[in-house]
## 1
Amino acid sequence: MNERIRWIRNNLKSQNIQGMIISNPTNIKYLTNIDAEGILLLTLRENIYITDERYIEKVKKILTIDDEIIVTSFRDLSYEDYENYFLFCENVGFEENYVTYSNYKEIMHKYKINNLVETEWIVEKQRQIKDQDEISYIRKACEITDNCFSHLLKYIKKGMTEKQISDEIEKFFKENGASGVSFPSIVASGENSAIPHATPTDRKIQSGDVITIDMGCVYNGYCSDMTRTIFVDFVQEYMKKVYDLVLKNQMIVTSEMREGANIKTLSKIVEGNFKMNDYDLVHALGHGVGLEVHEGPIISEKNEKTLKAGMVVTNEPGIYLPGEYGVRIEDTILIGENDSEVLTKSSKNYCILS
Amino acid sequence: MNERIRWIRNNLKSQNIQGMIISNPTNIKYLTNIDAEGILLLTLRENIYITDERYIEKVKKILTIDDEIIVTSFRDLSYEDYENYFLFCENVGFEENYVTYSNYKEIMHKYKINNLVETEWIVEKQRQIKDQDEISYIRKACEITDNCFSHLLKYIKKGMTEKQISDEIEKFFKENGASGVSFPSIVASGENSAIPHATPTDRKIQSGDVITIDMGCVYNGYCSDMTRTIFVDFVQEYMKKVYDLVLKNQMIVTSEMREGANIKTLSKIVEGNFKMNDYDLVHALGHGVGLEVHEGPIISEKNEKTLKAGMVVTNEPGIYLPGEYGVRIEDTILIGENDSEVLTKSSKNYCILS
């Protein structure tokens, strides 16, 4: 049987859960490689993927006999079929963080399940620890992102708009092996850089600008995420101070990232250092990266867990002065047993375009 | 007050619902024009948008005094604030089709609401009827899509891959006023055209191919959606028969689309005509188009409702012969009181590239 499904099944068994309904398409893609609309049922006897006629052909092309997944169409199922799937299961799991309240009620009604139980991110937690294949895809996505940044340093000229630069990022990714961006790129110049989640505008790049570029691409389904803050023509001394503070903290965190590191503490370090200089850490310090550009674990003071080897996370402190400017520096980082590896390798020295 | 929020408030009042928690970002965008991460609360006294620090700046730029929406940060709220929001409300509505089971439990816990009631797509139903501004944006998105199709007829050459064509579509949209594609374009050639939801591959266009192109763009937040099936060098007679059957049914449906038309009947007409020729209608006949490329109403035999003036929907019958080829023809259509207007105007005559 498909290894990832086997792992989930063992995990469920240890919690006295005999079956599971998996609806989140990203979780289904992770477990089966299927990229369609449908649901995956892990029943006592079988793994079943149910989809509609539009996808049957496509899904059959993706699966191999080793997956041990039966494919069927919604159209071919009777009320009785649904009721029989989990007939002898005491507990059946569902994705309480993905399934809507309406779907929940529908599932209860349709499958006649005795006990529909929450699985607390069971698949998402498994997804947090990347295997060698997944790491190689993320590594490649980061490499393409670095190449894009090098390209941008030559490409960006005064008078260009933020939108133009953002379009160039997308174009570069597509022409260099990525399937596209992992999220809409942020190119925020001048006072726009003070908006952490800015949308590219028609503002033109000009002398003295700070430019925050936050971008990532998707390679073979896996994401990268990197931010660099660069300058045009010159850097004001007061900006240097903010830049240095952000960079210093970003590097401290990276040096502390390894198996066992307390996530809350990592966030507290930055928060404390920022506070001492009268700045706030206004967003989470980072997040997991994988099939989704934002996935678990969240790197913030709210997370009481520790890092584990094989996690891939971002480290992205930022300081924002509304109406003036902002600085954010972000890398995608692979957690190891004794240290961490920065997968996005673009320089973080002052970068001054002219 | 913002007109759309006033409409929702009146609708809620008529159902004896005194407040509502709106979490779906598309619904929030529709009601407020805010494009961020947060929630909108309609309480007895106020409209409140709660977001995090990252978005405060951006949101304040979007709202005007006429919106009558208070903006606040999650960080500034106490447990008591949440409990006070709906203190004197008998019933508070939520989006049961958007809110996850986990969120539902969290809402119950956090706001201490007496009676959290389902609102049955209240905002989505309002969104189905487009106003003049919305129609003008969709019209423009359709016009750009038509222009893209004209461009493709000159651009596509034998030896090009499906992916190349799909990239060209995206490039064209961006260079011609759209903010991007409304969904990943489908360019399915030869036997791939038998897969209704095909993903573009490296397959090269060759003589005798059928090519299904399903694409749409986003203009000012609003979507278009169009499919054309074209031929390379020649059309086999047996393909013509299938093409004619699909086209005839597509045109019959369009001619029947108007205020009051029974949606189920529209679908049944096509299903019946296909069956008589030994084909199945394997997917829904269409769907609403607006801020989302797939929104209500679904045009299928499962929908017992009627069409209403101001709805914008697709009409997209298709026939698929697994392993061989497929034909789908789709327009985006504006429903009027006495007839309908086809907004995507590209020709549906046999189109044979050479």
Note: Residues 132-353 of chain A form a domain with the Creatine Amidinohydrolase fold (CATH 3.90.230.10).
## 2
Amino acid sequence: MTKDAAPNYSDLILAARNIRQFIHPTPLFHSSILDESVGARILLKAETLQRTGSFKFRGAFNKMRHLKAKKNHTEIVSWSSGNHAQAVAAAANILGQHATIIMPTDAPKAKIDGTQRYGSEIIFYNRENEVREKIGESVAKERDAIIVPPYDDPDVIAGQGTVGLEIASQALARDIIPDIALVPCGGGGLVAGCAIALQTQFPSIRVHPVEPENFDDTTRSLVSKKRMKNSPGHQSICDSLLAPTPGSLTFKINAERLSDGVVVTEEQVLNAMRFAFRHFKLVVEPGGAIALAALLANKPSYRNKNVVVLLSGGNVDSDIFGHALGS
Amino acid sequence: MTKDAAPNYSDLILAARNIRQFIHPTPLFHSSILDESVGARILLKAETLQRTGSFKFRGAFNKMRHLKAKKNHTEIVSWSSGNHAQAVAAAANILGQHATIIMPTDAPKAKIDGTQRYGSEIIFYNRENEVREKIGESVAKERDAIIVPPYDDPDVIAGQGTVGLEIASQALARDIIPDIALVPCGGGGLVAGCAIALQTQFPSIRVHPVEPENFDDTTRSLVSKKRMKNSPGHQSICDSLLAPTPGSLTFKINAERLSDGVVVTEEQVLNAMRFAFRHFKLVVEPGGAIALAALLANKPSYRNKNVVVLLSGGNVDSDIFGHALGS
């Protein structure tokens, strides 16, 4: 694929074949308590149980395996708040590559530990006054390395889209046609890939990106039909969803495909984490719980619908998780 | 089946057919970090993700569906520290039965709430000075109800054995022959059922019950070859594994089939819960984490083996879970 071309459904199928032996297929489950509470049929996709604890392994591994196969690239540079970092580190470990990853100083300890455990090198940057892409590009130049971006790349998007392929086949196996999908959105790679997969299989499905308050760049960009930026200076518990603006390629896809964005508060996210603990026995990180938060905060909107809710990751420090349980 | 006859492999197959449409098939997964840390191939069975949050739904539903089908029994009495209670309550709800359940006053709130949510009636008793079986039998007589015991029953054991059937087919699908299975043990129903399933498929597998310290009745009974009692007055964080003595029928099966018991400390259980949080993103209750605790506490014993580790339940109050994360 060329760098700026949006992947299509066939690219997703190829990605699925490329990563199949290395990923965990993850469950699509339902909860009677949740179904009754919303008055709907909810299909929950547990990408928290994916290798490295989030969906990110799919996209990173898809791209990095191509890089290895095509040109034997072994020097990789990337940037990430943590989930893509761990994914790149684990993929490099499997593929015999060396990865250098630019991470924010305030990344969760679980994500820093996970990245180091797989043998990758970390360069820290300050999220407030440094631009990770610039650091990454300069390191890549120095080391003659290939960049594996966290979302704005066709191979990465195709890899994330395999989540959507799995959801589609798991839903069809139960004879369910989803009406709506709620998908966490940071840079927009996951929701773009899933939209391609789900809309090909279910043409009338509505795919909504879900974002934390103050980081609703995609929601606003969908309205204004151009890429908007988040205003600086804000914090959010959803550390995995803090991209400053939609990706160029991801927004090209998302502008064509997505329905309105949904924006949720920190309290709603904490409530969703607690709900997943109590009723699903799953550890979900704040950004990973945001689609569930959107569902729980707007139940009447989903009444009598078949709704896919993506739980995208579970890499959370114990103090934040304890805070969610106690709040 | 007659009340005192041990179920055989065919009974487990029938149980699997009887419950198939009502249970969640649960994942058998592995973790590279755990495999490397032990130097073994570990297969983790996540019954935490079963309906009602533990394996108990399998046995309760198997028996109660038979009761409904054969004689249209609709009045049920049971006793349980909590997981079997929720299972009976959920099964009664599905089957249109009315259940009365004898629970200890100190049962976890999550388990009491879960039981009440499904519409069952709870009668509380004091674990220290009352005998739940006696209360249950007297209530059953009053109400002309059928007793669904938590473990000492062939239909219940056959239902729990379907966990073992699933493990066997999932392991075979990956071309793995397990050498060892570590299974949490309270009254012994789960480990009895799993031993029947696993030893039929893998004749040389060793199945070990795992128990908390001071509640090691099955471990001691396997040595003395007769049913031993736990001495009174002890507490354990493993609320689901506090049966005072092995069941009569379960011990008949277990005495023939099980290898040595493994006994673990409270610290080891808390450590296992933390490990599952961090690396599997799963919420596992203390008693549910005990087989993982045995593995982590005795790594050299399992080196180079294929080891099944059963995570049996995830119904834990947030304060206990927070304690495990912080400890």
Note: The radius of gyration of chain B is 18 Å.
